[in-house]
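Folding follows sequence. Below is one example:
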Amino acid sequence: MKRDSGYNTRQREKLISFLIKNKNKHTNVQEISAYLSAEGSPVGTATIYRQLDKLVENGTVRKYSFDGKTGACYQYIDDGENCREHFHLKCLSCGRLIHLDCSHLREISQHISEEHGFEIDSSQTVFYGICKDCKIN
């Protein structure tokens, strides 16, 4: 990963550390900001967005934008691993975003590609509904 020499290197390292610790889920700017504040390194949201944009540009972080209503989510991508393509489930009650790696949906995606000539971008595909935790409550 290419490093910037710059004013807020410590905050940037803490941002990257947070993303690495949370690489198995999507996170948003509000969660990152709260973490940095709790760590004693508060950073403005504009600065966080700028740093995330740089990380997206260099391929360290993947950006997910879904419905145009909620802010983007971000996920760290390991150098040695490719972020698997997967679909997403978005709970309309609690807002939780769930990765869905399902062979049935891969089959549907393959069918659509072969039979209809259309390639689905699964990283941008979201199914909206109610998660099992919210259904119980």
